[in-house]
Amino acid sequence: MTETDRFELFSYWRSSATYRVRVAFNLKGVPRRETDIDIDAGEQHGAAFRRVNPLGGIPALIDHGPGGSALPMTQSLAILEFLDETHPQPPLLPADAPGRARVRSIAQMLTADTHPLITPRVRKYITTTGGFDADAWRAWQIQWFGAGLRAVEARLAGEAATGRFCHGDQPTLADICLASMFTVMRVFKIAFDDIPTCTRIMAECEKLEAFAAADPMRQAGAPR
Residue 224 domain-assigned? Predict the structure, then answer.
């Protein structure tokens, strides 16, 4: 088995959660192979993928290598911490406990409080059962992207631990999660001009090839 064959990542080009995992693989220089799950075509609801993730969400990761359980791992933050434990350099979490708590807190503000409100399954429900039209859905996206990012902006702008990146001068889980919000907003053509610290940090992230190479528009399946 080659190193590339060890990790199988179930992915989709515009998935912001998959983007997070791609960035982590890139930062750590770990190869993977990707299995595309077309969420626009509903492939996440098929029996084959539901055996991988009963919730039908992506990403999912399988470690086929020696010592790997070959059981699927789901949830992007859990996968990121798995990669950080198995491939510790460069670290995605600070060395000190307060720093790790801060980074995890910022990451979860974005991935637990903000991102779940704009996922495809939420869109499907509120545009069918909920009766939202296209304009109402866009207003919903703008409301919850904006609320989440403004809260993160307040922390980043007001806390001394913020540096070049969300925490100090090296990218962490928090930066990966922040960047994932920007990438999906670009797909939806949403932007805010009142989050200057977040925007500055995103620009710093994009100077790194690990982030640039994970951009949704550079993935297989993206519109050209």
Answer: no
* pTM reported for the whole predicted model: 0.95
Sort residue 168 into left (φ over 0), alpha (ψ -120 to 50) or beta: left
Task: Give the model confidence (pLDDT) of 148-200 as tens digits.
Answer: 999 999 999 999 999 999 999 999 999 999 999 999 999 899 999 999 999 99
Task: From 33, 61, 90, give the residue that closes a domain.
Answer: 90
* Helix orientation angle between 173-187 and 134-158, rounded to the nearest 10 degrees: 150
Q: Give a yes or no: residue 181 inside a domain.
A: yes
Query: How is residue 176 written in tokens?
Result: 């990966």
Number of Cβ within 10 Å of residue 184's Cβ equals: 21
Q: What does the alpha-carbon distance between residue 17 and residue 22 come to, in Å, rounded to a whole number?
A: 9
The boundaries of the domain holding residue 121 are: 97-212
